[in-house]
UniProtKB/TrEMBL annotation:
It comes from Streptomyces boncukensis. Residues 289-306 have a biased composition (Gly residues). This is Hydrolase. Keywords: Hydrolase, Membrane, Transmembrane, Transmembrane helix. The chain crosses the membrane at residues 220-242. Residues 307-321 have a biased composition (Basic and acidic residues). SMART domains: ChW. InterPro entries: ChW (IPR006637). One of its GO terms (molecular function) is hydrolase activity. Residues 253-338 are annotated as: Disordered.
Amino acid sequence: MTLWTSLEPASATVDPGSSTSVRLRVRNTGDIVDEYRFEPVGDLAPWTTVEPQMLRLYPGTTGTVELTFAPPRSPDAAAGPNPYAVRISPTEHPEAVTVPEGNLTITPFTEVRTELVPPTVKGRFRGRPRLAVDNLGNTKVTASLSGSDSGEKLSYDLRPANVQIEPGRAAFVKATLKPRQIRWFGAKQEQQYSVALRRAGTDPLKTEGTFVQRGFLPGWLAAMFGVFVALTIAFVMIWLAYKPKVQSAATERTQNAGALAPPSPSAPISSPPAKKPDKDEPSDLPGGPDLGGGGESKDAGGGGGGGDKDDKKDEKKDSGEKKKKKPRKSTAADAVRALADREEGRHICYRALVADKGWEDPVCDGGVVGEEGGPPIKALNIAVSGTKGVTGASAYVAEGWKDGDEWQKAADGKNMYIGSSKEAVSPMQGFTIKVFDGTVCQRSRVQEMRWLDRVCTDPGDWKYGGSPMDKKHQLEAVRFSV
C-alpha cells in the first residue's frame, strides 16, 4: 500500500436542493512521485463533484481534494442515509486502487400536487371528474380525501377515500358528484366545489372545480308543453260549449228479412277458382316453381339430395369464414369517442406498441401505458376530444429525429400514430406533442431513470417528453392528460 486516505467528516447531512462538502486527505506513503486520479462511484455519483480531479504528490507529502454533494429536490434523492465512495487510482501503481467510503444523510421533504381532470364537468344527474395526486417529495405520503361546496348542494363519492403514495408516484381518485336537487326545467346552473387532501400535521390542500348542472328538460320544451296544455284545455272548453247534435239515419228493415232465401240443398255450390301464385312470390309448397333459374322443378324426392349437399357446403363455408375473422382490437379513437359520449369535456386516450408484446389496450386521462423496467415502447396511438385535434412526432434511440418523418396530426376522435412498428427501426426515446386548443400534460419513464417530472405545454406550443437526447435511453412508460 503506497497511499493513506482520510475523510473529514466521514458522515455528513444535506437538504435536497442544497449542497455540502467533505474533505478527502491523501498521503503518498511510497518512495516515488505518483499521480492520483479521483472518481466518485455509487448511487450518489451523479450528484458528486471532486475538485481537483487529479493530484501529483511527492513521497511523504499530503494533498487534499474536496467532495461536493448536491442532491436535487426531487423524489430521486431518497431520504435517509446513503453510502458513497471515491475510487483513487495511482498512475505508477495501478494495482493499488483505493476506495474510501463515507455516509451522506439526505433530509426528508414533502411536496404534493393535485389536479382535477377535467376541472369542469357537466351533467343532469351526476358528474365524474378524477383527482390526480402526485407525490413530488422523497417520502411516502398518506392522506384522506373529502369534498365540500357552499350550501351543501352536492354529495360526494370518492374512491378510494384514503391514499398512500410512494415518492415519485401518483394516485388517481375517482369522484362522483350528485346534485341533491334535480333541476327539471330551466337553464344550466354552475356550482363551485373543492376536493380536500388531508395529511397529519398539515393544512388541507384544496383543489377547486366546477359542476355544471343541466335541467332535465330544456326550456324550449317546457314552453311547448305549456302551449300544448293551454290549447288542449281551450279545445275541450269549445267542444263542451258547442257540442253538435247527432241523429241516427238507420231504419229497421224487418219486412225484407225474408226476401233473401237460403240456397236449395240440391243446387251445387261452386267454389271460386284457385288463385295462381304470382311469378315474383316464392312458393312454400313442394314441387313449386324453381326460383333459381326458370323451368319446372323436379319432384320432392329428386331435389332433396342436392339441397342437402348445398346446405352442408354453405355451412362449411360459413364456419370457415367465422374462423378466419378475428376481433378487431380497440384503438385510441374508439376509446375516446366512447368516453366523450359518456362524459363531456376534454379527454385524451392512448395505447402503446410494446416490443415483443404488441399493442396494449387503450387507457384514458392519466392512465399508464408501457411497463416500468419492461420492454421499450415502439410506437404510440393517441386520440383526443374537445381539443380541436392533436399533433406530434417521435424520436428514436438510434436514429434520433429520422429524416423523412413528418409531424403527424389528427382531428378530435381520430387516431394519430407516432413511432414505428418496423423491426429495423429502433425503439422510441422520446416525443413531442401539442393540442390545438388548451394544453396537454405528460410524464415519461425511461430506461435506467425513474419517472421524469410532469411537463405541460403552453397553449398552441409543443413540449418534448422522454429521455434526454444525449442519453438515448429507451422509453418504457408514459401517461397523458388534457
